[in-house]
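[INFO] parsing input record for Phosphoribulokinase
[DEBUG] input buffer:
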Amino acid sequence: MAVCSAYTTQSLNSTCSISTPAKTHLGFHQKQVVFYRRSSKRGGSGSGSGSSSGPCVITCSAGDSQTVVIGLAADSGCGKSTFMRRLTSVFGGAAEPPKGGNPDSNTLISDMTTVICLDDYHSLDRTGRKEKGVTALDPRANDFDLMYEQVKAIKSGVAVDKPIYNHVTGLLDPPELIKPPKILVIEGLHPMFDERVRDLLDFSIYLDISNEVKFAWKIQRDMAERGHSLESIKASIEARKPDFDAYIDPQKKYADAVIEVLPTELIPDDNEGKVLRVRLIMKEGVKHFSPVYLFDEGSTISWIPCGRKLTCSYPGIKFHYGPDTYFGNEVSILEMDGQFDRLDELIYVESHLSNISTKFYGEVTQQMLKHADFPGSNNGTGLFQTIVGLKIRDLYEQITSSKTAAPLEATKA
Ligand SMILES: Nc1ncnc2c1ncn2[C@@H]1O[C@H](COP(=O)(O)OP(=O)(O)OP(=O)(O)O)[C@@H](O)[C@H]1O
Ligand SMILES: O=C(CO)[C@H](O)[C@H](O)COP(=O)(O)O
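[DEBUG] output buffer:
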């Protein structure tokens, strides 16, 4: 491989910039990518200076143009929005819908992050699904080609016109412009379903809410807040279950981190779903991600922190940490069963956790206190969502620092 050094100044700069956008049928704004040949007169500063010929493949260092892509998968009503609010808060700044855009947009934008909802890639609207007898979870109701092309485009620094699925009307609305952010989060039912999309993810998370807990949360939201009947909630969960089992749940085997939410084991036969056992399952060997550990990395530890430093009322709090396997992969699992009485005392637990990617002592506790009103702030869901948020910040910083450190590489085939 020869280095195209003679052309780099002008050619790489122009290659890495976005020219006047031209829209394509896939809805992205074309970036002008120029491949220079040593013998080519189009090569600007390099033309004529080299003697060899053949296509010169130029690979740009991402610099600040490449977007880090995070996937978050979960069924509807399983806490994705809450997780996103915690994540964007870690990066600072509030996330808001695109200014002046469709009021029913599903997108949330902050300084660093753009969160897009994959419901926007439904290819069938509500009526279309009804006519064809398919649910939104069915791949046939979703356009994975467009999802792939657009996530790929954004990742490489190109803006796209993304469709909008309007949850109020059940219709597909005119598209909205999504500019490449520093971090793109694709959240929804299928971020890891399509292999091509999966391969674009720098990190992936699956929120695995057990049926009992999902039911309890649905009742709380859809019955208490939206006036649905118990029967209709049960019927909707049952109707979705076959497709959930077929298309959504299997994605967890691909996730780099899984947050599993189960009924507590501290109260025998509990079916209230208020006290939760939450497990953070972290894959080993993921680039730019080192699992969190309790006390001693790789050991197996059970810990009941209740006592002088942590106030615990019935049924108490129990932590567990250790190595395990998950779908044939080596993982570390950190588990918390129970709930905190006093959130400020969380600092005691935080001080026994390592690899949590905080920037200062007590950052996890500070984040949790800041969002004490979010669902799950007194238990492992909030704690682990916050920690995963910090790990994502760390991953982002590692990816971008390694990218800026790497020299521009231009090679010839
Ligand atoms: N950690 C939690 N603890 C208790 N309840 C929770 C938790 N997370 C979510 N919930 C409940 O589930 C509901 C849905 O949460 P959220 O809006 O974050 O989920 P979602 O996956 O974004 O939902 P949807 O896809 O339907 O918009 C909340 O209103 C709340 O009732
Ligand atoms: O599983 C879902 C993800 O949020 C929704 O049910 C799906 O997007 C269809 O939405 P709606 O019920 O508003 O037509």
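[INFO] The two ends are 7 Å apart (CA to CA).
[INFO] shutting down worker
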